[in-house]
């Protein structure tokens, strides 16, 4: 088959599969789609090891594996597809941002945290360039995922520094110190500090989060933060503070009228009492 004929045959078969995958109303078998794409790969490879056709096919295989939650299989294909596209130099700024983000997300699912950090950082870089279309909130979201990946990779000092800058920038973007979206960032900082053994710093961040929850009248944030503070107090040997914090949780849960919350809060306080008794 001549090169031009091969390219046309590839386009015909590939576009049918592509349309199906990206049709929001289409129903298809993930395993059958992966098999169809795999069957098309020899034709794509015949067009060149760095051909646009091979890059397109590999990327669609990556997308389908991601949809099937088979990121371990899909991630290498996505990485190779992106490498080919980078050599070809045919990606727009928006495409670079999107594709690096997709790779980063897949790497997180595969617990390949260093790979995730690399590509999420690339996504954040391209998100700041002319031609990108992400909102300020979406850009912060990418950076929050970088912080998460740093933490999961055990790079706690990097995560802490990253999240400290992110929190300052988020406050500026949101125009408020009491935006609910800040609760997760402050909690991440507490986790970073805790893993570094900086317990006083961790408690300080938790106190910020508690104040935020109280200002927002958000019982979910308040109860979760009191729990974390109680656990930290117990771990650092301050049993009286731990009991006080978990007793506060019981009172707030009772006032909420939510029986499930109350039962959980009472069970947590009882567990603390049992642990303290065992340690005597």
Automatic annotation (TrEMBL):
Gene3D superfamilies in alphabetical order: Tetratricopeptide repeat domain
Superkingdom of origin organism: Bacteria
Protein name per UniProt: Tetratricopeptide (TPR) repeat protein
Species annotation: Acidovorax soli
